[in-house]
Amino acid sequence: MAPKTNTKVVSSLKGKAVDILEFGKELYNEKSVILMPGKGCDKDVATSDHKSMMKLAASEGFAGLAAIFKQFSLDSRKRLILTGHTDTGGDHAANFTLGKNRAEAIYCLLTGKKDRWAKLAFENQCIRDCKWLMTYFNFLGGDSFKGVTSCNPAKIDNKWDAENKTRDAVKGFFKGLKAKYNLAIDDVDLAKKVAEHAKKQWPEVIWKAVFDLYDEQIRKYLKIDATALTAFRTNKLKFAQAGKEFLGCGASFPMPTPDDSKYQKEKYRRVEALFFYLDDVPARKKGTPKIVCFPATDKLHLATQCPFYHDKHFIANYLDPLTELNMIAYHMKFNYFNQLHKKNDIPWSRRLPEGLTLQAVHYPKKGGKTVKEAIKTITKFHNGIYTAKVPDDPKRKDIYFEFKSVTQLTPNLERYWVYTKDKDTDPKLEKKFDKDIKALMTPDDYYKRLSYYDLPHEWSSVNYFT
């Protein structure tokens, strides 16, 4: 059996486990709804600052968007809800609106609603947004602008500089967009109007083109073309409830202890993509998810008013977007005959309950010999189905799965058994010493013995399939 260090279990035994992708503070400028391509966008930096440019180059904004789509490839049972959060400054009612607009902007990028996204971007943009975007696509946007123009603003801040570097960068960016998408615009005149505008706002026609740039980057990370992305949006992308795809939380519910190691980094400003199984959606009633969100007011919401406050309703499992893009999932169910759950007096086939830890392995050849190697494995469970997530590797020739029921060998053998209290109770895994099970092998206790199903000490799909 492979060592435990190669496994991770996302357990729902102590509460519903919900996967979350976070778009944090470094991907949003203050009061803006526009998701930036990479991190560091909330600070003033020069485009010659190598460290800042490397953070931007990591493209965690685009990777996060692609990772949302990826979740539905890994598990089609998932349902998505987007929640938008803000900093604490300013009016609470305005912050609820800002949070909702941030979440809606992500929703538009996911669903292909270009016109609505462009309107949100136009109404909520700042100069810093535009400078970060120009910098990203000037240096890192593939062949979008290479050989056509330069759109380097030299410094990224929220100011329109007197040296005309911002103006020239805007002219170059508009020229590049016109060439790339064959836009019916006078790019020179449009850039002039932006420079003369009191707020230096880019018009909606430009934001529509920026949407297309974002779309291109999402496809790049998913390694699919435009037709495949459209099909994905239509057939695979699923939300928990129509009309409640995105919610605004304002400055309510800051994270009490942000933890960088869990990819939960932001206390306030962020958008969270929460992935529920359909029957785990908060306030689900009569087979249909019914989300009841407390209306925005001039006061912060209380934990008791919100169905999505982590500490009250579920266990948050934060995901690393770049890792998720390289994962593949296998779904398994393990059936056994339950002696207490019967149909027509015949033992009923039931699925093993939650509690096993799966380990993926493969058998590569090294030095002319076949060796067994463990693969890093994440185990999840829902409604009788075990899911094993592993890093995808095109070079891997085979893959198998194992589990081990033994938890202790000495001084007494201890292992997991499937325990069913009675015919009306769902089974669960329970640790028991073998000697205690053997003690039930008496006429008076035989019914109790039937309550325990004997799992194999070790199981491997090598003996079955993959």
If you had to describe this structure to a student in words, what would you say it looks like?
The protein is of the alpha+beta class. 30% of the residues lie in helices and 24% in strands. It contains 13 helices and 23 strands. It has helices at 50-57, 60-74, 92-111, 114-124, 127-139, 165-181, 187-196, 204-222, 226-235, 310-313, 321-324, 434-438, 446-450; strands at 7-10, 17-23, 45-46, 78-85, 155-156, 246-250, 270-277, 315-318, 327-332, 335-343, 346-351, 359-362, 365-366, 369-370, 373-375, 377-382, 385-391, 400-404, 406-408, 414-419, 428-433, 452-454, 458-460. A 5-stranded mixed sheet has the order 6-4-7-2-8. Strands 1-16-17-9 form a 4-stranded mixed sheet, with no helix packed on it. Helix 2 (60-74) crosses helix 8, helix 5 packs across helix 6 and helix 6 (165-181) runs antiparallel to helix 7. It is elongated and about 95 Å long. The two termini are 18 Å apart.
